[in-house]
Amino acid sequence: MSAESPNPTPPPPVEQAPPPPKPDTEKQDQDLPAAAAPATAETVEKEEPPPPAAAEAAQHESKSLAAMMEKEEPSSPEVPPAAVKEETAEVEKTVATQEEVVVIEATTTAGKEEKKQVEVPKEKGPISMVSFKEESNIVADLSDSEKKALDELRQLVQEALNTNQFSSPPPPAAAAAAAKEGEKVSVTEQTPAVASDTPPKSEPPVSESDVSTELKPPQPQESTLKETPQEESKEAVKEEPKTTSLPEEVSIWGIPLLKDDRSDVILLKFLRARDFKVKDAFIMIKSTIRWRKQFKIDELVDEDLGDDLEKVVFMHGHDREGHPVCYNVYGEFQNKELYQKAFADEERRMKFLRWRIQFLERSIRKLDFSPGGINTIFQVNDLKNSPGPAKRELRLATRQALQLLQDNYPEFVAKQVFINVPWWYLAFYTMISPFMTQRTKSKIVFAGAPRSPETLFKYVSAEQVPIQYGGLSVDYCDCNPEFTVDDPATEITVKPGTKQTVEIIIYEKCVLVWELRVVGWEVSYGAEFVPDAKSAYTIIIQKPTKLSPTDEPVVSSSFKVAELGKILLTINNPTSKKKKLLYRFKINPFTD
Q1: What is the mean pLDDT of residues 269-287?
Q2: Among 580, 373, 328, which Cα is nearest to 458's?
Q3: Mean per-residue pLDDT, 563-575
Q4: Which of 39, 224, 480, 549 is the most buried (most CB within 10 A)?
Q5: Where is this region: Disordered (predicted)?
């Protein structure tokens, strides 16, 4: 299925499922690693109701989605907040009627205190009707039928390498079949053609192996007497050397085929994209390798295409399972100058496509293709302020990218999370979801603006989530030298109308450094030091102050502790909404 639809199209999606299969045809299922496509809802949170007229128009399409959401089942349980390191802290929690207190005993002496984990009230997260679990790439873990399919595909690939099939253009029949299949994918408006994407059909192609073994005798000079046809034939036979073509070497994503066990991981991606149908997977591999040569992927990886689009797509951190996280920020295209530079004409759209493929190729080559390694990417698609479905140039570029990605980059997505999703995107999804396979649907999560940070925290820990999406992660710089993505953060839910106090107990002189945020603020924050000595006075570090959503997203503080006592960090939530508190701290040596 193409990204285009008779109805308005969404901003560039990342995955797209093929058209609905005929009864005796294959139902295609594969992942699109980067651009954009509709998908299924693990979480659907509507940011605001549609206008009356639009709501009435979308009412019919939305019925199926509503039915899907009637019975909500919780997805995999929320990951508990990170425990404080054993050598630095002990954590325990006591709950009062109107106030919750987290007690942390902090020391720089390892092993002095037993570590306990904060018991944070669990908050209901995104709703999941289906849950995708990545399959193992270890051969021993495969079923018998999958092992057999892998062996058969290995044999076909080896035969193709021996006979140089990957270097030869496809026969006319295969090219015609590919063209016919391309017509099925298109819905209404034909995707702009990629110059290198369609092989020429004017003449029957000649295989490279045939050309390489054909040797012609040298032409005689004018002064040489002409020989009879019989003599010429004998001379040609006499001079023709006996040659044997060597197996060609083919690499894909930097991995040579059939050289080591990393090749099995690549072959399994193609098999899973074709439901372990060996012949179909082999055809897909051949097509992908030919496209990579035509598009000159290996040369493209090293080209300098500029950094104008670095805010549109970027990699940042890892999810809780270790997958690298890729952020696609479609709101950046609200910048008219950037939009025109990327999509104004076919030449610029092709440059954008080359840049996007280059970014994807560079990201893929950093993955671990060993059988037990991480070789998929966690995709986050931010639809906030997205240009919407009316931008024709964006639709064309999106559809063109989607076609290339779904044909040549199978099974590279671990999870697709759409955040800040507008209501119209859900209506569009309802229309196209029947054409999507269950495998594709199981990888998709939708979240409206209010639930976007919470949804991200379900899959990505707070210290790995960028500040603009509710987390604590910033690029390392002089203004934030204390904390990195390697310093775990604790997540606590502050209930409506309650006060949350974090007590950090100090056992020796030190310098305590901490940072803290409440997503969306609308709370009061204060900090104080309470000495153990009864005759000492409490020191106000931060007077209780009301913080609004427009204030700085993260508060960073430090305090030099010269005597034993405890530091209290207090959050007062007067609202009727639950709030997510994130904090982390470090204990540095005391210096005079």
Answers
A1: 95
A2: 580
A3: 95
A4: 39
A5: 1-94, 161-245
